[in-house]
TrEMBL record:
<dbReference type="InterPro" id="IPR027370">
    <property type="entry name" value="Znf-RING_euk"/>
</dbReference>
<dbReference type="InterPro" id="IPR017907">
    <property type="entry name" value="Znf_RING_CS"/>
</dbReference>
<dbReference type="GO" id="GO:0008270">
    <property type="term" value="F:zinc ion binding"/>
</dbReference>
<dbReference type="InterPro" id="IPR013083">
    <property type="entry name" value="Znf_RING/FYVE/PHD"/>
</dbReference>
<keyword id="KW-0479">Metal-binding</keyword>
<protein>
    <recommendedName>
        <fullName>RING-type domain-containing protein</fullName>
    </recommendedName>
</protein>
<keyword id="KW-0863">Zinc-finger</keyword>
<keyword id="KW-0862">Zinc</keyword>
<dbReference type="Pfam" id="PF13445">
    <property type="entry name" value="zf-RING_UBOX"/>
</dbReference>
<dbReference type="InterPro" id="IPR001841">
    <property type="entry name" value="Znf_RING"/>
</dbReference>
<dbReference type="InterPro" id="IPR051051">
    <property type="entry name" value="E3_ubiq-ligase_TRIM/RNF"/>
</dbReference>
<feature type="domain" description="RING-type">
    <location>
        <begin position="15"/>
        <end position="55"/>
    </location>
</feature>
Amino acid sequence: MSSGSNLRSEDQFVCSICLDVFTDPVSTPCGHNFCKACITHYWEVNVPYKCPLCTEIFKKVGLLEVRREFCFVLMLVLLSC
């Protein structure tokens, strides 16, 4: 695997708000992933509630989905490092 493709796959596990590996990853209804604390704090100071990546607006804040499969893959990747 080339270093470029390896870097892109590592980016899949980085929160675009804190720029660190996900902690308690959740997904917004538009499908973007963030740390639960990061997106919660982002929405506390940014109204209307919208996705920081695609700017889709949400009417409710409680629409975050815990991605258990994603958490499992993240755990496997971190353990293999």
